[in-house]
Amino acid sequence: MRTGTVQRETRETQIQLAFHADGTGMAEIKTGVGFFDHMLTGFAVHSGFDLTVSCKGDLQVDCHHTIEDIGICLGMAFRQALADKNGIARYGTFTIPMDEALASCSVDIGGRPYLVFNAEFGDYRLGDMDSAMVEEFFRAFAMNAGVTLHINLYYGKNDHHKAEAIFKAFAHALKAAVKMESSGILSSKGTL
């Protein structure tokens, strides 16, 4: 079973997270940041991954620590779940239109963490979430999951639509990359 669980406690956040790569898209998300809950729920539904997140964070400061630390935990849980990369497609790319916004995500589950993030947001806030935290979430995920992520927002006007297109493209790209396709490791080296 491809699952990962993480419990992480710091002075800023207390997080419990469970991830199941072969799920049904079930989401139980309680981060204290409503817009982020909406993004993570959409991620679970569109990827087909089961995701449970419970977080108590220092939201009296702002949402930064909560969102970044959840990115860390999701990356760690993903890495646990996909520790045996045997048979996976490894790569995934997907483009999502969300009304006037168009975003794509390409992923390589190759063990080399890297983030390319080409997206700009006009508004400072997305509900109760700082728009700058979209990039920070994906950076924390990529570094802790050991994956390469390329995220490109081609255009869009509504920041809600831009963020949602990005999260959904991410979901579908990961779904494609973790799909079981054959036996063996997809690498000329024979290992990742």
UniProtKB/TrEMBL annotation:
Say yes or no: keyword Cytoplasm present: yes
Note the superkingdom of the native organism: Bacteria
Q: Which Pfam families match?
A: IGPD
What do the Gene Ontology cellular component annotations say? cytoplasm
Which of UniProt's keywords are assigned here?
Amino-acid biosynthesis, Cytoplasm, Histidine biosynthesis, Lyase
Gene Ontology biological process: L-histidine biosynthetic process
Pathway connected to this protein = Amino-acid biosynthesis; L-histidine biosynthesis; L-histidine from 5-phospho-alpha-D-ribose 1-diphosphate: step 6/9
Q: Which SUPFAM superfamilies match?
A: Ribosomal protein S5 domain 2-like
An example of a GO molecular function for this protein is:
imidazoleglycerol-phosphate dehydratase activity
The EC number(s) this enzyme carries? 4.2.1.19
Localized where?
Cytoplasm
Q: What's its catalytic activity? A: D-erythro-1-(imidazol-4-yl)glycerol 3-phosphate = 3-(imidazol-4-yl)-2-oxopropyl phosphate + H2O
Keyword Amino-acid biosynthesis tagged? yes
InterPro entries, alphabetically? IGPD_sf (IPR038494), ImidazoleglycerolP_deHydtase (IPR000807), ImidazoleglycerP_deHydtase_CS (IPR020565), Ribosomal_Su5_D2-typ_SF (IPR020568)
Coiled-coil intervals, chain numbering: none
Similarity section: Belongs to the imidazoleglycerol-phosphate dehydratase family.
Q: Which PANTHER family match?
A: IMIDAZOLEGLYCEROL-PHOSPHATE DEHYDRATASE (PTHR23133:SF2), IMIDAZOLEGLYCEROL-PHOSPHATE DEHYDRATASE HIS7 (PTHR23133)
Q: What is this protein called?
A: Imidazoleglycerol-phosphate dehydratase
